[in-house]
């Protein structure tokens, strides 16, 4: 019940195209949904996040779409650039034993071809 | 602020040896998390601390793993004895009391031969 399922595992997109990564969850107690970006040899870094009372959040070329009834959320990267090539993790936050903790999806390796 | 600092960045050791990974969280952050990242299992939460006190260690794989936080600016993750299946990248992360955002360190790549 505390799993977050992410797809696809890997994705190749042409420069200028739209990259879409999807995540699904079961536990309705999750109350915060961030996306993290990780470059090789680095730790994950927060990219964008959304709360379940909002259906969409946009920051520059990055947009989260959130469907509460379907328990799904997705990351859209518009006008994808080679510099966006990285591994992306969705996550969900849950209050457990007195603190918020994150449950991560398995990750998507995104490659943007020039 | 320098961000979360981890050392060493790379560790190669032989099976059976003791391994100690170190983490310095961002100053003022109340929570510290230890994660393990592998291709097979992704990013797994091992243990987290609040104000230096371990809150949830349910992710620690077995008794060979232990973690301590003797003060607000230092934490260790120890594996004794180490095994080849412990090979992974270990991340430390910290966050402030009223924030959801976790800040990750650069990780320690552990190889056990």
Can you give a write-up of this model?
The complex is a heterodimer of chains A (114) and B (113). Chain A is globular. The model of chain A has no long low-confidence stretch (mean pLDDT 94). Chain A is 0% helix and 59% strand. Chain A is mostly beta strands and 114 residues long. Chain B is mostly beta strands. Helix content of chain B is 0%, strand content 55%. In chain B, the strands form 2 sheets. In chain B, strands 2, 4, 5, 6, 9, 10 and 11 form a 7-stranded mixed sheet that branches. A 4-stranded antiparallel sheet of chain B has the order 1-3-8-7, with no helix packed on it. In chain B, strand 5 and strand 6 form a beta hairpin. Chain B is globular.
Secondary-structure map:
The complex is a heterodimer of chains A (114) and B (113).
Chain A: E1 4-7, E2 10-14, E3 19-25, E4 33-38, E5 45-50, E6 56-59, E7 62-67, E8 72-77, E9 86-96, E10 99-104, E11 108-113
Parallel strand pairs in A: 2-11
Antiparallel strand pairs in A: 1-3, 3-8, 4-5, 4-9, 6-7, 7-8, 9-10, 9-11
Chain B: E1 5-7, E2 10-13, E3 19-24, E4 31-38, E5 42-50, E6 53-56, E7 65-71, E8 74-79, E9 88-95, E10 103-104, E11 108-112
Parallel strand pairs in B: 2-11
Antiparallel strand pairs in B: 1-3, 3-8, 4-5, 4-9, 5-6, 7-8, 9-10, 9-11
What labels would you give this structure?
heterodimer; A: mainly beta; five-stranded antiparallel sheet; 0% helix; B: 113 residues; seven-stranded mixed sheet; 11 strands
Pair of chains with the largest interface and how many residues each contributes: A-B, 24 and 20 residues
Q: Total helix count of chain A?
A: 0
Helix content of chain B: under 10%
Distance between termini of chain B?
A: 36 Å
Count of individual helical segments of chain B: 0
* Gyration radius of chain B, rounded: 13 Å
Strand element count of chain A: 11
* Coarse morphology of chain A: globular
Largest sheet of chain B: 7 strands, mixed
